[in-house]
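Q: I have three molecules that I believe assemble together. Could you output structure tokens for the complex as a whole instead of separate predictions?
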Amino acid sequence: MSFLSLTEADREAMLAAVGLSSVDELFRDIPAGVRLGRALDLEPALSEPELVAHLTELAERNMDTGTELSFLGAGIYNHYVPAVVDAVLSRGEFLTAYTPYQPEMSQGILQAIFEYQTVICELTGLDVSNASGYDGTTVAADACFVAKHATGRDKVVLCETLNPQVRQVVKTYAPGFGLEVVEVGHNGGVTDADELREAASDAACAIFQQPNFFGCLERARDLAAVVNDAGALAVVHVDPVSLGVLEAPGSYGAALAIGEGQSAGNYQSYGGPHYGFIAARSNLIRRMPGRIVGETTDLDGERGYVLTLQTREQHIRREKATSNITTNQTLLALAGLVHLSWLGPQGLRELGETCMSLGEYAKARLGFPLVFPEQTTFKEFAVRVGRSAKDVIREARAKGVHPGYALGRDYPGLDDALLVAVTEKRSPADIDRLAEVLGDVAG
Amino acid sequence: MKLIFEKSKPGRRAGSLPRYDLPKAEVPDELARRTAPRLPEISEPELVRHFTALADRNFGVDTGFYPLGSCTMKHNPRVNERVVNLPGFRDLHPYQEEEATQGALELMWRLQEILAEVCGLEAVSLQPAAGSQGELTGLMLMRAYFADRGEAEQRRVVITADTAHGTNPASVAMAGYELQKVDTDARGNLDLDDLRAKVDERTAGLMLTNPSTLGLFDEHIEEVAAIFHDAGALLYYDGANLNAVCGISRPGDMGFDIVHINLHKTFSQPHGGGGPGGGPIAVRDLLEPFLPVPAVVRDGETFALDYDRPKTIGKVRGFCGPFGVFVRSYAFIRSYGPALREMSEAAVLNANYLLARLRDVYDLPFDRLCMHEFVLSARSLKRDHGVTALDVAKRLMDHGFHPPTIYFPLVVPEALMIEPTETEAKETLDEFVEAMRAIAAEAGTDPQALKDAPHRRPVSRLDEVKAAKRAIVKYGFDEHPPTPVAGERETLEAQKGS
Amino acid sequence: MAADESYPDDLRYHPEHDWVRVEGDTATLGITWYAQDALGEIVHYEPPEAGSSVAKDESYGEVESVKAVSEVVAPLSGEVVEVNAKVVEEPETINDDPYGEGWLIRIRLSDPTEVDSLLDPDAYRKLTAEQ
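A: Yes, here they are, computed for all three components at once.
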């Protein structure tokens, strides 16, 4: 199967116009020494029905959250994606368009990004958002880059309660940025403000997560305050669907808010593609990485949208760019816009309240000791299951339930700890089932 | 057209969520939201109409010809959308147990094998989220490789061509390297004398795309590779132009040690208005130990994620990368099999056909057969009629085409970089030729029509200077500046009359 | 509204397209007609702070157009005594009057002899012709 439109007759006519007699001659500038000279060693072409059968067979060897009752979270969540999201994303004018460099051809995408930027600013309480980053991990690296150039300092502080993959990605980028990375350990499932103040004293920024990786609510106001006192930028990694019930970072002193957008509008999709978001105070606008859409007018005075402040970006400033990002995650961010518009402010608040009340119900029904009993949680909480959490997961799955994430994978002393996520897709009956299964398999 | 916020009405709502009769959980006061975010309050019918109206104001490959050079705007097969939405892919959590993700792991492993074969290299990581992230990852690999050999301090410089994509120098800076540029000669190849003068023991490597952004295959690529390898340096291939050479020449065989592939260019992942993309990297064996974790490995009939890579550079993105993109690209490649070669042949034929039919009306900076794209210049139009590449681009919109890339590469003044891709029909190419020829003629008879173009889009030419000055980057609700600004419309009317 | 091409006789020029007008132990700095023409309409000016030092041949700020961001280079060394607030508000002043109202900073010179290494108008004009 191929997707070509040329016929044999077309090829002959075209070769004649070029003045050649065979397709091979088109490649005469390629030196013989680098020609492949054989067919590619790939499996034979599949027709469309065969292709669908093959992919279906592969997909059926995966156990997805529609088939198995799942309480797995840890950064990627099983939230409900409304049908309107699928409908909008299937429009070919969005799906198959390029980055909107020619604005008169792309007002649909440009206006949608402008609306997305507005929504992110509303959620985070900040002044400028970009058009998206790759995911919730790389935007943390972006934020460190912004902070380094804004403060002139070359140390960044990461809280241990920040998602482990986010920390790992920052550490991968740090050497190239010339940044030193230090971590502040957690204290009972949250970050201690005094320890953070100490670590931030000569830092460009400090990043903490709200709610954090354990699902716990940090004392975000206090943490931002001590970071600001230290002359560093407070960067908060937030859950977008928590921002109907949790305070906006811009209201408590954050300079930057970042996060993984997946919970708003994207399927889990084995980890991607999703979108990262990054928003900042207005004084950082010229340091923002990535695309930004701005409003303007046309020759007739009509309102329109264009990519703006492009001189910051790779294709004009080249080696002095604020980042190298080109292709970002526009379509997934569009999904986020649609989802958040579908929810509206009321719906977003209800979503947060539902997650929290289901979480409390689950804690009570499960009856296991909480790892961090002092803390308020949002849509996830950690329990001790009395034996290896990995073994408990395996045995629970044999009964058709995935109970959560084994925290011992990332944190010492937590091999018996299970991180249980509860979203609006889980009912009290589902939670009852989890309680039953865990009751059978826990230690 | 109104913004979605301007269609908002208090009390309206599209979505519905399950409600349970459970006690409310309280958020501590100092952490609780005080003012609700001003998300749109809109019904589902209004929501659907809004996004439909936006789609109507947008142009994709599905709409028409989209010859953006170095972007490879080929048709995106619909079957790919069907398979990516199979629940076993779409609803799979990335932390699911490996025994329950064997289909996903096998798909990734097979895609790795395919990309290794296409590139002529040995090991692959699918993790980078886009081409430019692939570049940065490749440069990090370079740094790790030389550090492992004790040469990190010695090798500080990466060389790029003066025709390079803007991402190349930006990636070099982000990786902590110094940048040096090498010239392109009159035939469109790297200037070997300039190169020999610049490559020495301080060189870490070369970043190059071949064919170049001029659409020309470097005829001395073997010599170029030897110059770098003799100096102990590495070669990095920017895969943006891979569509020209699949099954014909492989970057590994050209001498490149690290390659990034743009899945959203060569392998049909839809561009989505600006992403998602995928930027996997293929490397020679000697660089495999440094690849990001986890690696996707095979052990007999079982597939697994291997985190035990002591020399890894770490992680550049969450999980294994953009999995949904892999599904589409895998499906695309399986649809072709070894006939991937025909894809590249058609891409190159389409480009040369356009070149042959346009070379007499626009300036041609390099008189050679092109590969999958070529560069024309509007410099004569500018000199003779004051009409620029920008004006040509805007007027093409009125003919129903998306313009080609303009003002790139920088070495060609008034550049028009045209890449038709392999999926276009000859009739479409002929229509494009007619439009380009008509515009060239119109430059002489009615240049103002070009300078005021476009005339047939939802907006006329937009003021990018004003956008940069005002920097309005979100809706300001009650404080949003009115359009037009007071007095502007009268001024515009007056100007148009004169 | 951009100015016509000119390179006034009373100024001295730096090869990075910056000019200086020496007035005793202070000097006024800006960018040349050539620079503003290459950039196109200027939309933003990022100045240094009053009281900070500038060093000969080094960047002291940025000007930005839709096409590019460019560093502005100091032809002479000294301490910044005044920043042109008008240009911060209306950056396009640089295009309209690059040598007059479009001045960028005034400095107190730390080494007046540095002016000997700068270009006179003819030498600078020749340089721009070669670009």
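A: One point stands out. Chain A has a mean pLDDT of 95.
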